[in-house]
Amino acid sequence: MAEKITPRDKDFSQWYHDIVINARLADYSPVKGCMVIRPNGYAIWERIQQDLDRRIKGTGARNAYFPLFIPESFMKKEAEHVEGFSPQCAVVTYAGAKELEEKLIVRPTSETIINSMFAKWVQSYRDLPLMINQWANVVRWEMRTRLFLRTTEFLWQEGHTCHASAEEAEDETRKMLKVYAEFAEEVLAMPVIQGLKSESERFAGALRTYSIEAMMQDKKALQAGTSHNLSTNFAKAFNTQFLDRDGKLKTVYQTSWGVSTRLIGGVIMTHSDDKGLVLPPRLASTHVVIVPILADTSAKPRVLEAADKVANVIREYCRNSRLLPYDVVVDIDADESKQPGWKYHEYELIGVPVRIEIGPRDLEKNQVVVTRRDSGKKEAVSHEHVGKNVESCLAAMQSDLLDKARASREKNTHEAKTYSDFVREIDEVGGFFTTSWCQSKECEAKIKEETKATIRCLLLDDKYLPIKTNTGCIVCGNKTNGSIDALRVILARSY
User: Fold this and answer.
1) What contacts 24+ positions apart, CB below 8 Å, involve 18-26?
2) What are the CA-CA distances from residue 466 to residues 196, 198, 202, 460 (Å)?
3) Residue 35's closest CA among 149, 135, 158, 156?
4) Please, what's the b/e burial string for 344-367 (b: 16 or more CB within 10 A of its CB; e: otherwise)?
5) How far is 96 from 105, CA to CA, in rounded Å?
6) Does 408 map to a domain?
7) What is the pLDDT of residues 393-449, one digit of tens each?
8) How many whole angstroms separate alpha carbon 56 and alpha carbon 52?
9) For residue 199, what is the DSSP state?
10) 368 and 484 share a domain?
11) CA 84 from chain center: how many Å?
12) Do 96 and 212 reside in the same domain of the chain?
């Protein structure tokens, strides 16, 4: 199995592709630019859904579902929005062998059609806040695609809320950014930086866009989630108003926020190695696989019996675990058509966190051999202690993966002091570069054109305010752009 994976240091892009295909996470669809998510990949998405859905509902949002098709006139109501998404829209002009009276847009995002309903549902301040979440598919006609990271159709979660005041909308936007950041670090073991997008990078139709940015093993950035303060832009377009306590008719303030199946790509590129997929235990659908060694026919019944007992010990011990916020799933692979060595490679390839071997010799010693997927560490463990050992392995693996990824990000984050140094170092060493920017579009465009790097985000202080700096812009040297102070930003190449 291992030879199917191209080494990361040889070709990172091919390595990523090899893992997606060989770990059976996804495959190419007959429809160009689309993907088929296979059971192994969809199981990861289900784990993401389960945990994140609980967190979203904890904020007060409720799940709903809205149509895949959006009237073209809806998209045109918010000028910046339609301009931003028009190049990526798929359009239905015929249905049932008849030309449609009005073209239908295949959902690239749902702000417009959801607002058409919000305008009906919101009448009074008593209807606020209105907080809706949707798990759905969307279509954006991408020119260059890569499985999970950028496909024409993908799965995502999108939240949409209405509020009585600008302050409430901003608080909601920031709250959801924090939810995403905590989820990324606690579940995906993916450290992220929370920041504010530049004006050119913000969501089409938003007042402000916040994002979480993660560093992959090749030192490129991945935008892992976004949260948008829409202000009243869409509400005005759809006349979404409410009668306030003072008896006056007012326009609602709104937010939208979302993550997608690109998180699976992010997990792969953050943790996996040249043997295959490495999954944080909280994302695994199978946490432990027991491989009985069955070559000795006479010992086979005793080995299988011991394997079953060990599996039950682990399940029972971990059922009451204070360290693991999930049910531990244990499988026994007693398939005699495949050799143990083949199985070891297979489970490394698909990313099962813990592997346990048990054979006749282990029975004599009343032990099993426990191997962690991430470190490859092997340990002989007695039957009576195997439950505690597995619990410790899973908990340690989850935290170790986060620590390792965070250490890598810190090691590969640099201070860009001059533009010439940055141009050279982005090629030579890569990574994240902190620097100052005067907020001019001209300087931002020059960085992108000459280095293929972008401003990933404006760094924020504890109050979610952009960090001002006395240092001059890395491009032009100015400390201000007119009356605007220079800000601290992160530059990086990205997916």
Assistant:
1) 19/268, 19/272, 19/276, 19/277, 20/147, 20/148, 20/265, 20/268, 22/276, 22/349, 23/276, 23/277, 23/349, 23/350, 23/351, 24/350, 25/147, 25/148, 25/264, 25/268, 25/277, 26/147, 26/148
2) 7, 11, 15, 4
3) 149
4) bbbbbbbbbbbbbbbbbebbeeeb
5) 16
6) no
7) 999 999 999 999 999 999 999 999 999 999 999 999 999 999 999 999 999 999 999
8) 6
9) G
10) no
11) 23
12) yes
Is 103 exposed, middle or buried (CB count within 10 Å of its CB: 0-12, 13-18, 19+)?
middle
Query: pLDDT (tens digit, 9 = 90+) per residue, 340-361?
Result: 999 999 999 999 999 999 999 9
Q: By three-state DSSP, how is residue 489 classified?
A: strand
Q: Supply 176's token pair.
A: 């959801």
Question: Long-range CB contacts (< 8 A, 24+ apart) of 20-23?
Answer: 20/147, 20/148, 20/265, 20/268, 22/276, 22/349, 23/276, 23/277, 23/349, 23/350, 23/351
Assign residue 91 the CATH number of its domain: 3.30.930.10
- The residues facing 92 across adjacent strands are 104
10: which 2 tokens? 């040889």
Identity (one letter) of the amino acid at 191?
Answer: P
Q: Which domain holds residue 464?
A: 413-492
CA-to-CA separations, 108 to 6, 71, 89, 140, 263, in angstroms, rounded: 34, 12, 7, 5, 18
